């Protein structure tokens, strides 16, 4: 009788070959098939300013399905589609996957129209050769110079700036006060900053003084500290990570980590939750975080205790560093692009539209007119944030490289290896710098 | 030792009566399994104790996270990040559940998930039934090579297929359709389903098929009116496994299905894991609500889930 | 008991001339499935593996032949680490669900009260949408507000909150635990199905002969279930070897790449790094590894045959 099973059954070598033989035959077929990705990206098509007949178009955003932001975006879309009598097809992906998915869709030609993008992605998207130059449409619309610059890549206006701000330190003035630190007179040098963190730690109760990012996903926050310590990150196409300043920055970060001044396993979400619960005194965030933080907090007055502060500097008197953060609307050539461009211009610069959006999302607008309007100017948090943080914000020098996401990941993983004690700051930064250099080519 | 005996699915043939016993015609009447369960009449206290200990330890591992899912879904948004967390929420809040019913996109995702998983299950069972039957009851050159190829195809790195699949489906205009998802998941579940069903068909006596043939039934008809009905429990079991594959997938559903056709896993992430915050109570509430119908369906079908495997493939 | 009857006799009785031969008929039956496999698995696989020899970006047009450069990069780079981590993950997520699933199957196969209800309840972890499993465990393991820390602190096992997902050793454990939680129900179902095929008479006879429970377990249950045990272990091994979703969502391969496996590395490299060539090279090595396993397996089983 048979009691054989899969585990005892012998396959002869010939049979094993036969299995893979089928594969090999297909390999030949496959190798002949075209795999190219089409024409190289030429110069950007220019979006025109002349009159046109509005058509249906697609709009993609990660905020379309997100509970907190969706109402603002939806009302924006219905406003435009009502005005021009067109249908806007909505495309949405989760925030963490959005960039990859958008890249895939744009590359494959499945997506054309208006795309909500993070300004960090413009370099990569532009490399696909399908973004339109919208400079003709941004002229004379009252956009601030700095916001226009944030949505440029290699001198070309690849997108309409939409909500441009920065990532900076946000503090809970009440907790700072308890530790004798004045949020309005916040330490300006790194040494004083660290001393203030130690004081905060002294409050006890499991308080995390500074909920800095320590999870790989947001460890790119370390880059701004490297810049603060004096590393340019990239200079004339050469990655400088691994230089003394970057190593010092990482060693300092590791010091904060070891002293418990920053906590393990924290990303932006965690930082916001901890901050909302009053379990962290300060953290890094963009203006977009305010809504989440105040909504999640058991303290109904938290909004009035939020104080943005300038990042401390290595020496007193240096310019505080901050990283440009922001959303923009890019126009992807193809069906509906013309209307999409008109929509982009309208959504980002029409005063009523922008102010209505501001009411709902509270994100910093980009036109002089909107910025000086009562409702925006009277927002203390917003104007303080702009004055102390956004004013000196610069973009990340890696953003100009299409591989920037991978570069950031490489660096973040190296820093993480330092934090968990696998590598020394010197070794980790040296190899991360070399890896980043290799990616840039 | 015949060539047959060393096949992966070779199973000693079950007595005719047993095979028939799992068939639909009397499945409702019979509550016993084809072979009698080995539960002993006289269980000693030691056995009972061990059984309960296993149930408590493993069951705790299984169900405590489910409890935590439930507890979190009932915790107000402002308390959910408190530490230490409350094992029993002091204030029960239904706001997370209320927000579910005002969110139409969620039901869209649920509908997509059910459509994709059900079609995947049906198609997968159909395609693998033909394949399994061809492997079980026919002899021809290359049969074994084919069988091993089918079995080994599930070892290939699926993550690697995504890039090309994306371009292939794009080329045929199948992106953002159910088709792309169904075709992918069906293919990924084929090896297991073929294997399960072949095992099942092996237990169907050749004499039965031969008799039908003598009566003049065509080969297709034999499959449809004799073999498949006899294998109903196996078909259901295979279908349930295929269903779960479609139900659980994240990355293919995210990449190949457009916003309209996205299934629950990417849909839930899309809705609750935002740019600024993660809505834990809502995410947990939504997960529970959408899992419930499937869990109930599975529990009512678990007779098949276990029984469907029994008659066929599982014996070594 | 009979062996599987030689079915070839079926074909010899067919005399009607217009009918297709059985071989052709069988091939037609196989065709739909085969076409799917070729289109959805084999073709994409080959094109992906071919990129291993090119410097090719997911986003930039064009590609350049680089020979074995990508493969050398992988071999001298992350390969050994990935292999080790993949094995740890795969073996862990195969054995733990097996042990838990088997224990539950044995327990629920006795006549304890409520076995049926429990059997149903145990299916829930398997049916919660896959990503939710990751999020749930991420939530449980969270260093700053997770219930795991609270629980362990409560019973005094740890004295301060641990960052489970931020330390390489515990992160791998957490990932394995989450996957275990998801897959033990299916192990339970399969083994329960197997247990119910064990004829009761065998147990009864052994009991009369005075064999204790443990002895009966090893001398009857395990040998009877040999086939199904081997099978579920093999299937789980194959699936876990290429499991993606739970790791990707729970840790993203971190911290510092310590939970990265072949599957997540391939995806990260292709979709986040846009480096198709490198991803293809990882995939190619993965394939070579699997082929090597097949060859070893063939050798092994042929030797077994000779003995």
Automatic annotation (TrEMBL), chain B:
Q: Which UniProt keywords apply?
A: Cell membrane, Membrane, Transmembrane, Transmembrane helix, Transport
Taxonomic superkingdom = Bacteria
- Annotated segments matching region Disordered: 20-40
One GO biological process this protein is involved in is: transmembrane transport
Subcellular localization? Cell membrane
- What residues form the membrane-spanning segments? 49-70, 114-133, 145-172, 178-201, 222-244, 283-301
Domain ABC transmembrane type-1 per the UniProt entry, residue ranges: 110-301
Asked if the record carries the keyword Cell membrane, the reply is yes
Keyword Transmembrane assigned to the entry: answer is yes
Q: Mind telling me which GO cellular component terms the entry cites?
A: plasma membrane
Alphabetized Pfam families for the sequence:
BPD_transp_1
Query: How does the protein associate with the membrane?
Result: Multi-pass membrane protein
Q: Indicate what this protein is called per its UniProt record.
A: ABC transporter permease subunit
Protein species of origin? Agromyces seonyuensis
């Amino acid at each position: 009788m048979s009691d054989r099973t899969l585990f005892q059954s012998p396959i002869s070598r010939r049979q094993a070959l036969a299995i893979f033989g089928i594969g090999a035959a297909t390999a030949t077929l496959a190798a002949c098939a075209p795999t190219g990705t089409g024409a190289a990206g030429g110069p950007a098509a220019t979006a025109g300013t002349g009159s046109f007949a509005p058509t249906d178009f697609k709009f993609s955003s990660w905020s379309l399905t997100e509970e907190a932001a969706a109402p603002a975006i939806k009302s924006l879309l219905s406003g435009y589609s009502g005005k021009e009598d067109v249908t806007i097809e909505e495309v949405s992906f989760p925030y963490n996957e959005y960039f990859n998915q958008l890249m895939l869709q744009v590359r494959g030609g499945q997506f054309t129209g208006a795309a909500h993008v993070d300004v960090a992605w413009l370099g990569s998207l532009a490399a696909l050769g399908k973004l339109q130059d919208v400079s003709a449409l941004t002229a004379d619309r009252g956009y601030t110079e700095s916001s226009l610059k944030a949505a440029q890549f290699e001198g070309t206006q690849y997108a309409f700036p939409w909500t441009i701000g920065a990532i900076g330190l946000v503090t809970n003035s009440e907790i700072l006060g308890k530790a004798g630190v004045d949020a309005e007179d916040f330490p300006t040098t790194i040494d004083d900053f660290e001393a203030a963190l130690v004081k905060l730690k002294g409050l006890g109760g499991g308080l995390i003084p500074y909920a800095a990012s320590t999870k790989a996903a947001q460890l790119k926050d370390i880059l701004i500290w490297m810049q603060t310590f004096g590393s340019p990150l990239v200079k004339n196409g050469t990655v400088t990570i691994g230089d003394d300043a970057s190593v010092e920055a990482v060693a300092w970060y590791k010091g904060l980590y070891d002293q418990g001044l920053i906590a393990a396993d924290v990303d932006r979400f965690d930082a916001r939750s901890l901050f909302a619960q009053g379990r962290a005194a300060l953290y890094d965030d963009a203006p977009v975080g305010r809504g989440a933080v105040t909504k999640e907090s058991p303290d109904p007055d938290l909004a009035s205790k939020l104080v943005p502060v300038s990042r401390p500097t290595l020496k007193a008197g240096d310019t505080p560093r901050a990283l440009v953060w922001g959303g923009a609307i890019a126009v992807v050539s193809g069906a509906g692009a013309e209307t999409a461009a008109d929509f982009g211009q309208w959504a980002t610069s029409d005063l009523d539209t922008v102010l209505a959006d501001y009411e709902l999302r509270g994100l910093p607008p980009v036109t002089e007119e909107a910025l000086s309007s009562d409702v925006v100017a009277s927002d203390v948090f917003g104007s303080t944030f702009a004055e102390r943080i956004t004013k000196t914000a610069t973009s990340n020098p890696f953003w100009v490289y299409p591989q920037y996401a991978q570069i950031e990941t490489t660096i973040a993983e190296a820093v993480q290896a330092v934090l968990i004690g696998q590598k020394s700051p010197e070794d980790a930064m040296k190899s991360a710098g070399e890896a980043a250099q290799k990616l840039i080519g | 030792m015949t060539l047959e005996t060393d096949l992966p699915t070779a199973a000693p043939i079950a007595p005719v009566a047993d095979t028939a016993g799992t068939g639909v015609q009397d499945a409702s009447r019979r509550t016993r399994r084809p072979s009698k369960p080995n539960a002993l009449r006289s269980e000693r206290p030691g056995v009972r104790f061990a059984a309960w200990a296993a149930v408590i330890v493993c069951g705790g591992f299984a169900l405590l996270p489910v409890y935590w899912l439930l507890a979190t879904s009932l915790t107000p948004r402002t308390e959910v990040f408190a530490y230490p967390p409350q094992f029993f929420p002091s204030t029960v809040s239904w706001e997370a559940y209320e927000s579910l019913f005002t969110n139409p996109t969620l039901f869209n995702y649920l509908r997509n998930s059910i459509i994709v998983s059900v079609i995947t299950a049906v198609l997968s069972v159909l395609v693998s039934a033909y394949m399994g039957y061809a492997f079980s009851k026919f002899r021809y050159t290359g049969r074994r090579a084919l069988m091993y190829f089918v079995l080994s195809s599930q070892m290939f790195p699926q993550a690697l297929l995504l890039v090309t699949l994306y371009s292939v489906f794009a080329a045929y205009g199948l992106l953002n359709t159910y088709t792309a998802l169904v075709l992918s998941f069906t293919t990924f579940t084929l090896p297991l389903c073929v294997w399960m069903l072949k095992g099942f068909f092996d237990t169907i006596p050749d004499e039965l098929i031969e008799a039908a043939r003598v009566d003049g039934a065509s080969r297709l008809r034999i499959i449809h009116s004799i073999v498949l009905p006899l294998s109903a429990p196996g078909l259901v079991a295979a279908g349930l496994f295929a269903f779960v594959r479609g139900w659980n997938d994240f990355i293919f559903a995210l990449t190949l299905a457009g916003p309209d056709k996205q299934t629950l896993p990417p849909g839930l992430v899309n809705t609750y894991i935002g740019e600024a915050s993660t809505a834990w109570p809502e995410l947990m509430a939504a997960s529970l609500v959408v899992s419930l119908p499937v869990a109930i369906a599975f529990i009512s079908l678990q007779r098949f889930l276990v029984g469907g495997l029994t008659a066929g493939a599982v014996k070594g | 008991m009979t062996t599987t009857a030689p079915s070839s006799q079926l074909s010899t009785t067919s005399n009607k001339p217009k009918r297709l031969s059985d071989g052709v008929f069988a091939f037609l039956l196989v065709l739909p499935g085969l076409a799917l496999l070729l289109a959805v698995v084999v073709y994409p696989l080959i094109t992906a593996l071919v990129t291993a020899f090119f410097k090719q970006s997911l986003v930039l047009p064009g590609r350049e032949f680089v020979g074995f450069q990508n493969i050398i990069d992988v071999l001298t780079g992350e390969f050994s680490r990935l292999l080790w981590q993949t094995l740890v993950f795969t073996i862990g997520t195969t054995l733990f669900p097996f042990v838990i699933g088997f224990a539950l199957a044995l327990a629920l196969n006795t006549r304890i009260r409520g076995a049926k209800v429990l059997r149903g309840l145990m299916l829930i972890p398997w049916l919660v949408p896959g990503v939710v499993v990751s999020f749930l465990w991420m939530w449980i393991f969270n260093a700053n507000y997770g219930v795991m820390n609270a629980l362990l602190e409560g019973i005094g096992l740890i004295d301060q909150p641990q960052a489970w997902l931020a330390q390489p050793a515990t992160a791998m454990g957490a990932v394995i635990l989450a996957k275990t939680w998801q897959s033990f129900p299916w192990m339970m179902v399969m083994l329960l199905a197997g247990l119910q095929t064990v004829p009761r008479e065998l147990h009864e006879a052994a009991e009369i002969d005075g064999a204790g429970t443990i002895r009966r377990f090893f001398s009857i249950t395990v040998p009877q279930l040999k086939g199904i045990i081997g099978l579920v272990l093999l299937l789980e091994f194959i699936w876990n070897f290429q499991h993606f979703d739970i790791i990707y969502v729970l840790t993203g391969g971190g911290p510092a790449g310590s939970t990265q496996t072949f599957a997540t590395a391939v995806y990260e490299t292709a979709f986040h790094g846009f480096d198709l060539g490198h991803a293809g090279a990882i995939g190619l090595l993965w394939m070579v590894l699997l082929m090597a396993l097949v060859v070893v397996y063939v050798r092994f089983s042929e030797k077994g045959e000779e003995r």
